[in-house]
Amino acid sequence: MPATVVVGTQWGDEGKGKFTDLVAKEMHMVVRYQGGHNAGHTLVVNGETFALQLVPSGILYDHITPVIGNGVVVDPRVLLEELDMLSSKGVDTSLLKVSGNAHLILPYHQEIDRVTERYLGKNKIGTTKRGIGPAYADKASRVGLRVQDLLDPKIFRQKLDVVVKEKNAILAKVYNQLPQSADDIAEQYLGECRERIEPMITDTVNLVHEALELDHHVLLEGAQATFLDLDHGTYPYVTSSNPVAGGACVGAGIGPRFITRVIGIAKAYVTRVGSGPFPTELFDEVGDLLVERGGEYGTNTGRRRRPGWFDAVMLRHAVRLNSLSEVALTKLDVLDTLDTVKVCVAYEIDGTRIEHLPYHQSDLHKAKPIYEQLPGWGEDLSEATERHHLPSRARDYIAFLEAQVGVPISLVGVGPGREQFLHFAA
């Protein structure tokens, strides 16, 4: 009954989609367990690019059942647009299943997200304004509408009328915004959305357990990453759910004893989007090079990502939080042209060397990185397909990272293509 979790170990954008797709070849089912369409991942297959937001990576394999789990928040309009895009490229989407317990993102969530972020001004969180946070807030407040409510138009409308009345009062009295129309929302969601999504809606907890009981391999796919986790990330500059490996149990409906492997995805450097502390952030020409060579612009928003050197302090903490069994290292090729490569191995805080992540946000904001400097390799890695193809200095860099974080690096990405990777573990 094996289940594998794939989780981001930094601030997202580590390349989870590619490596989830790679691992998915061995799987029977891929389950997305949290987040919404604020998290994009890009796959390049036979030269064609697929930018996915809600649909699990396993959709590109015809032997896999892709599942959107109960921990996800779903905008059905975005889901249908994504399915249409995939269908137009010849991808069969008929096997997709959606949990009836997943919560819906509704238009008032997006409006509240937008005006709240604007209201915060310089203290804004950096949300994508997709309605993710407000949808999770309604879930916690027990006033959310779920995917299963689409199956009962009477119940859907009763719940919607109550919530819209409350949301309109907030929008009008706090933010001076026009009211949302319950009639328009009901017409849209109970029309084409309901008609097309209804065949996909099911009891995904039962579906996942049936697969596990048959000894089928199940992959649990997270969105965002460890340091965007609501509990363990750099709060308040975090997402509204739990991307850490433990969140997979809640978001997919399984117990921890089913999980036999946890793969952490880490980029060979670090990026983050939006506000928040970033000890190794670069503001120089090296940072610009990482952005340009790495294509560090948001899949969904197009926002330029903030670049920085690899932070081993962060990754050591991610190993703890997720019980990582291994790490997949992405975008090593982006560092090809650098003469030297730096790795943050500790922080200096008020004159004291700290080798663990400080729990207090004020300490993290003033943390100064302590670097080890390694020589660059100055060679194009994009054609490497085996460990021995890597120059010795590139292998030394990976070995140094392994020693710093305490778990093996099993896979290494050397380009954006589906096949541009190699097995590194001895």
- Average pLDDT rating: 93
| Shape, principal axes of CA atoms | globular
Tell me the fraction of residues in β-strands, as a range. Answer: 15-25%
Question: Span from first to last CA?
Answer: 27 Å
- Give the biggest beta sheet: 10 strands, mixed
Quick one: how many beta strands? 20
- Which strand order does the major sheet show? 9-7-5-2-10-1-11-15-19-20
Evaluate the radius of gyration. 22 Å
Instruction: Give the helix/strand class.
Output: alpha/beta
Low-confidence stretches: none
Question: Helical amount among residues, as a percent range?
Answer: 25-40%
Number of helices: 12
Question: Topology, please?
Answer:
Blueprint: E1 3-8, H1 16-24, E2 29-32, E3 41-45, E4 48-52, E5 65-68, E6 73-74, H2 76-88, E7 97-99, E8 103-104, H3 107-120, H4 132-141, H5 153-173, H6 182-197, E9 201-202, H7 204-213, E10 218-221, H8 245-252, E11 259-267, E12 270-272, H9 285-294, E13 306-308, E14 310-311, H10 312-322, E15 326-330, E16 340-349, E17 352-354, H11 361-365, E18 368-375, H12 392-405, E19 409-413, E20 421-423
Parallel strand pairs: 1-10, 1-11, 2-5, 2-10, 5-7, 6-8, 7-9, 11-15, 14-16, 15-19
Antiparallel strand pairs: 3-4, 12-13, 16-17, 16-18, 19-20
Helix pairs in contact: 3-4
